[in-house]
Amino acid sequence: MAAIGAQVQRADTGDALARARQRAALLPDLLVEARRIMNTVNTGWHGRRKSGVGESFWQFRPYTEGEAVSRIDWRRSARDDRTYIRDQEWEAAHTVWLWADPSPSMLFKSEQAHVSKESRALVLILALDELLSRSGERIGYPDVADPSSSRNGAERLATLLSHTTKLPAKPDLSKVRRFSDVVLVSDFLEPVEETVALLQQLAHAGARAHLIEVFDPAEEDFPYRRRTEFIDPETGASITFGRAQDYAEDYRRLFFARRHTLSDYCKRIGWSYTINRTDRLASDALVSVHMNMTASIGYQRGGS
């Protein structure tokens, strides 16, 4: 039997300390990669700026009838034939929760992939943290860190994750409040009903979610032929098929049905659903999520 893929850095899932050490060993390199990817999309974040209550100068713009006279900048107006308003930049911090799935299935990496699903998920989370932190947002991570503002947010989060012995399979979302944004990065291979129940909890809290499905090319393409043994990374249970190719069509049907169900649920309530194969660029997913979050945060601020 030829091996198509395997769990990387595999350890006894019951050994929380060993698992934490593996995660800690990964994070320094992943932090560097996250910052590299973040720099490729960083230019788009200026679009989130808007006028509002704050101390930082943003722009001068022509005065329009009906605006408060107290907002006129007389010094700037004296240099021209027009009257100008001095706009300040909106500085109300927004709360964003980030979460990367720590389950054993995220360790999978096939021959076609560049990295494991876990590595890709952590890179995306760290890159988002870096982007959002530089914009002054309050970043939290369920079960690890309460929301706070920090200019070195990604480094702070990487340090906290490296010292966390055990992360629960599901995030504790009880602290998520209305108007917060929540980014969930996972392969979402658990039963769809469980994922929907988690999303309903966020919907009831009045939050907005952005799902990033990270998956290995072998999980989507099903390249298995002839006699193949499949092992459940969560339970260790295994099953062997004499002709794996006979099950390809049924597998793909179920694989895409799960994705469509989750994607349709998100779109129906105005959330976003992004997919990212581990043999493709992480920046693709980051750009997509960045655009969706920009629209989300801008709307919530503008309406508050």
What is this structure's SSE topology?
Blueprint: E1 5-7, H1 16-41, E2 57-62, H2 74-78, E3 84-88, E4 95-100, E5 108-110, H3 117-134, E6 138-141, E7 145-148, H4 153-162, E8 181-186, H5 192-205, E9 208-215, H6 217-221, E10 228-231, E11 238-241, H7 248-268, E12 272-277, H8 282-303
Parallel strand pairs: 4-6, 4-8, 8-9, 9-12
Antiparallel strand pairs: 1-5, 2-3, 6-7, 10-11
Helix pairs in contact: 1-3, 1-4, 1-8, 3-4, 3-8
Q: Explain this structure to me?
A:
The strands form four sheets. The protein has a six-stranded mixed beta sheet, sandwiched between helices. Strands 1-5 form a two-stranded antiparallel sheet. The chain is α/β, with parallel strands linked by helices. The chain is 40% helix and 19% strand. The model is unreliable at 1-5, 7-14 and 44-55 (pLDDT under 50). Helix 1 (16-41) packs across helix 3 and helix 1 (16-41) packs across helix 8 (282-303). It is elongated. The chain starts with a strand and ends with a helix. The protein has helices at residues 16-41, 74-78, 117-134, 153-162, 192-205, 217-221, 248-268, 282-303; strands at residues 5-7, 57-62, 84-88, 95-100, 108-110, 138-141, 145-148, 181-186, 208-215, 228-231, 238-241, 272-277.
